[in-house]
Amino acid sequence: MKIKFITCIYNNLYGTDLGGRPNRRDHYKWSLLSLLKMTNADFLCYTQESEFEELIDFFYTQNNISNEKLQIKIFDLRTTKYTELIHSVKDYDAVTRDDRCVEIQYSKFDWFRKEDGSYDYYFWIDAGLSHTGLIPNKYLNTSLPMMRCFYESSLFNNKFLSNVINYCGDKFLLLAKENARNYWSGTVNEKFYKNYSKEVHIIGGMFGGKKELWEKVVDQFDDYLFEVLPFEGRLYHEEHIMSLMYQNHKEWFITQEFDTWWHPESAPKDVHPEYFEKNKSFCKILEDLNE
């Protein structure tokens, strides 16, 4: 059985016409290095030309990761299949102040189309998913030097990977956040739903499954994207489109669900411990998939 994770690292996009999170340079590198402990999978990381040599040096030279285990490819985000669609509705002034890049978000799906289908399972995973904001200290290697200790987690390993595969079965895996008691985001226009619901918000940090399942999911994502954006005259995050897709095609998917991003160490000081008795932390998904 062959498994492949697709991810990306693009820094220095904040303040540009692409938009993106600021100050994530070391975060993404150290986090992805932690994810690579899932050694039974191969990884592909897209990046921009200006970062290519730095990533080659960090992973291949400094940390002895083989280029067979992690392939690093250059991709120009201004050449996605969605460029014209995005341009037709993008508020370029607002995007320079935005901390999300829709070109990356939408490409999470289209990058699958560049694959040759030689793997049995494909997953998207955000390069920065392994970090202290989501993972308590007991799962982090706090003995490591500053920066790396915030991202090096024991939770991403081959047992986790095996359990993910077993959990998926013949369904496409999505991460689903409760969105009623613990509101996170609105949705696209109700007219696009078969049965409108905003009680679940799908998260774009990790998703996937058997290769045979991907094509219809990617095609449906594109269909909704090209229908919703022109109608609304605005950009939506990939998660809004994924949430629509989940509600309209639940039979395609299997979910891992959670209520809050916080764990007790990352929550604001005024959050009572009882909160975590009533609300499932994102980290609990990672814990459960390590059992």
Structure described in brief:
The chain has 291 residues and is an alpha/beta fold.
Plain-language structure description:
The protein is of the alpha/beta class and 291 residues long. It has a domain at 1-129: 3-Layer(aba) Sandwich (Rossmann fold). The protein contains ten helices and seven strands. It has a seven-stranded mixed beta sheet with strand order 3-2-1-4-6-5-7, with helices on both faces. Strand 1 (3-9), helix 1 and strand 2 (42-47) form a beta-alpha-beta unit. Helix 7 packs across helix 8 (238-248). The longest helix is centred in the last third of the chain and has 22 residues, at 211-232. It is globular, with a radius of gyration of 19 Å. The model has no long low-confidence stretch (mean pLDDT 95).
Question: What is the element string, with H for helices and E for strands?
Answer: EHEHEHHHEHEEHHEHH
What's the CATH first level of the domain at 1-129? Alpha Beta
Largest sheet: 7 strands, mixed
Morphology call = globular
Number of strands: 7
Mean pLDDT value: 95
Query: What's the arrangement of strands in the largest beta sheet?
Result: 3-2-1-4-6-5-7
Strand content: 15-25%
Low-pLDDT regions:
none
What structural class should be given to the helix and strand makeup? alpha/beta
CATH architecture of the domain at 1-129: 3-Layer(aba) Sandwich
**Distance, first to last CA:** 21 Å
- CATH fold call of the domain at 1-129: Rossmann fold
Helix content: 25-40%
Radius of gyration: 19 Å
The helix tally amounts to 10
